[in-house]
């Protein structure tokens, strides 16, 4: 089973903030790593992906732009801010977080050079789907243990250790979205030509 789950889940943060976290199956348990403040998170993540030999990375970051930016002619009526997937999930506009979006799209291209696919996911949507009864997600640090316990109940493997913050928790959620996708249980949002979000 472990051979089939050669994917990594990533909560993608600001480049130097130490808020990027990754989760992947290692020695039969779901392990979580986190970048350090002041460290180039993109370089750290690329090195981790190669070191862990991930085949697919499920990342919580926009990997495409609204379709209008790929068209030769621009219409005033087009959506310049949101993709269809963003509207369906009430997600943030890729344009609003432009710097992070640009980094994520570049990271996807860099990973592709090493034969690693990057797919987009959205942990907040997975919480709404699987744990709608829990309150305080990413708002109340005191809620993290209850969310972690509920997550463990959903995971097919043991967490190596409890998530210490919401970034680590979201990385585990991104991994679970990847697991669901590979098992044919995920929900796809958006238009394939513009960019899908996997939940």
In brief:
With 199 residues, this protein is of the alpha/beta class. Helices cover 35% and strands 16% of the residues.
Question: How widely separated are the two ends?
Answer: 21 Å
Order of helices and strands: EEEHEHHEHHEHEE
The CATH architecture would be 2-Layer Sandwich
Low-confidence stretches: none
The secondary-structure class comes to alpha/beta
Q: What fraction, in percent, of the residue positions are helical?
A: 25-40%
Number of helices: 6
List the domain count as a whole number: 1
Rg, Cα atoms, Å: 16 Å
Fraction in beta strands: 15-25%
Question: Largest beta sheet: what is the strand line-up?
Answer: 5-4-1-2-3-6
Average predicted local confidence, pLDDT: 96
CATH topology: Nucleotidyltransferase, domain 5
DSSP E strands, number: 8
Judging from the principal axes of the Cα atoms, what is the shape? globular
The first-level CATH class name? Alpha Beta
Biggest sheet record: 6 strands, mixed
